[in-house]
Write a structure and sequence with these properties.
128 residues, alpha+beta, Zincin-like, 11% strand
């Protein structure tokens, strides 16, 4: 009988510090792009997000880009549009990872993936 894995237990402050460590380790071209978006930590993806993306489990989503990709923006963009943001989902990442190093790598990979959406790439076009 397979054992269920217990999620990594980390304080909010420690997780936030790991996020900062992950962001500080982004390659220069991604760090520049990261400056263009808000990066926020949320505990779990909402039921609405899971439904919109047709996902059955919160564990299937580690991060989410929300905004207009830069290849679709223009000077004539309508006013009042929210700035681009990337949500990092703490719960799914902590359930996936076993160590601090794994969390930092997963956050870094997730941010790079979501920044790919920021520049207009589809999932199939991502570098990994």
């Amino acid at each position: 009988m397979p054992r269920s894995r217990r999620p990594l237990t980390v304080s909010t402050e420690e997780f936030d510090a790991w996020i900062q460590e992950a962001l500080a380790g982004l390659p220069a071209r991604f760090a520049t792009l990261a400056d263009e978006v808000s990066i926020v930590v949320e505990e779990e993806p909402s039921a609405d997000v899971l439904q919109d993306l047709e996902l059955e489990s919160a564990d299937d989503l580690l991060g989410l880009y929300q905004g207009v990709p830069i290849d679709e923006t223009s000077f004539f963009q309508s006013a009042g549009e929210l700035p681009a943001r990337i949500a990092i989902y703490r719960g799914p990442i902590l359930r996936l990872c076993r160590t601090k190093a794994e969390v930092i790598q997963e956050v870094r990979d997730t941010v790079v993936h979501e920044l790919g959406h920021h520049v207009g790439l589809d999932d199939e076009e991502m570098p990994y």
